[in-house]
Amino acid sequence: MRQTESPEGKSVRLLRVGEQVRHILSEVLTRGDVHDDVLASHTVSVTEVRMSPDLKHAVVFIKSLLGQDEEAVLKALRTNTAYLQRAVASRVQLKYAAKLKFRADESFDEGGHIDKLLRDPKVAQDLTHNDDDTSVTPGDTLS
To answer: Hey, what CATH topology would domain 12-105 get?
Structure first.
């Protein structure tokens, strides 16, 4: 493993720049700098930004509050991509301005689905065992 890589395999620089872009986009959306009715009426969280290795492209994962009108929010963000790219480019010192692509963050839905599966009585039955009078319940961590 190269010294500039994290244990997950992505370079520290990619992660750092992605986090900077995430903070900038969150700030711009929170302050209401984008003059769009849909974005003004919805609270949008920027959950993650994944940068390409050449830092020219960024995939921005968003989640609207309670998942309401997510498609409308994505459409509004895609409509205002040029403004958001300029806002990011003016605050992040890179050779090229990253092209932003917006996607809905499905990780919360996947996490909820896994939680639902673990709380299913059939699965809970399999998680409970009588080895040394120890039992595992959903939500416990195994050591």
So the answer is: GMP Synthetase; Chain A, domain 3 (3.30.300)
- pTM of structure: 0.71
Residue 48: what are its φ and ψ, rounded to 5°? -160, 150
- Chain-centroid distance, C-alpha 60: 7
Structure tokens at 30: 């929170």
Q: How do the domains of the chain map onto residue ranges? A: 12-105, 107-143
pLDDT tens readout for residues 63-120: 888 767 889 999 999 999 999 999 999 999 888 889 999 999 887 666 666 777 777 7
Residue with tokens 């399999």: 126
- Output b/e per residue, 47-69; b: 16+ Cβ within 10 A: ebbbbeeebeebbbbbbbeeeee
At 86, the amino acid letter reads R
